[in-house]
Fold:
Amino acid sequence: MINLAQKDIKHTLGKFIITAMGVGMLLGIVLIMIGVYRGMIVDAKVLLDDLNVDLWVVQEDTLGPFAEASRIHEDLKNSVRVIDGVEKSVGLTFQNLQLQTSVKPVRVVAVGFNPFDKVNPINPKRLVEGNILTHDHYEIVISDNIGFKLGEEIPIGRNLYRVVGITHGTVSSGGEPLVYISLKDAQELQFSYSNNRIRSDRARGIKDSSSNMPMVNAVVATVRLGYTTDEVAHNIRSTLHKSVYTRAEQRDILTKNLIERASKQIGLFTAILVVVSTIIIALIIYTMTLEKMKEISIMKLIGIPNSMIMKMIVQETLLLGFLAFIFGNLFSHLIYSHFPKRVVLEIPDAWMLFLVIMIASILASLIAIKKVINADPAAAIGG
Structure:
């Protein structure tokens, strides 16, 4: 049996492939958008996974430092540590900083921790150069995509910080690079007032007590074997009257509360691109059908059934969708590494898009099929 679709595509092969490439670029952007969302999920889990703690103790009636302001006294870690079921607890700070590189300013998130405590947020597996912090002051571990080299000094506030280590793949929930400094340095940067502020407060009769009451943004803790995190979290809430979140709850805050709006926006944009791709495929197939209406009329005149002609249209549409999907995958894999934030391309997402495009291609062929069914065989007579 003659394959009409094969004959027709062979006749306009160049035009068909270029059209598939154009649609494929749209589908490539769809894959990139899905990858951006997947990347946001991965970024949100980096710090949580590196810390590997069970409980987050934060300011009462807040969601913690990743969602809103949270300030608690550093010595709260001692109160948490004596709660039954707690193995170890430390205080942490999180703050946004702007580092001036030789090229341009870079926005980072600084994690402040005590380098001599039992909980260290620096994952040794992510350390590609140098070492972790070994002193209380003026050392910094940075991410490799910021632009500084080992041994360089970075001006932050009124001091210089020497780069002692470089990590790879360490980002905040928002995708900004992470840097690590000592807790004392972080408290000085975040909670201590400038000299002008202190003088102004003293003139107003306000006594400066910031240095006497060290603050942190959160206290994190691990749970002993034999205890459940929910049980220990309840004990901390009832005893210390602070908000306490388990690892799963903190992950939900990061992956749902913080990126929910962004995920909806990405989802809507993705859906629009799929609809646009479907419309483009429909228009292309319809145009190709119009161009050969005389040939279709001749085929109907000599007795070729509508079903065979309809099969040709559907085959062309499915092949166009398939080629567009292939080109879209190639396009997305060529450009995804150039995006400023993490893009994660997963095979299940590609297969889901393939299924959607195949269904969309079948729907797109219906307009052209309707035109074929209504074609008048008499139109073939007389040109």
Notes: The radius of gyration is 30 Å. The chain has a mean pLDDT of 84. Residues 60-241 form one domain. DSSP finds eleven helices and twelve strands in the chain.
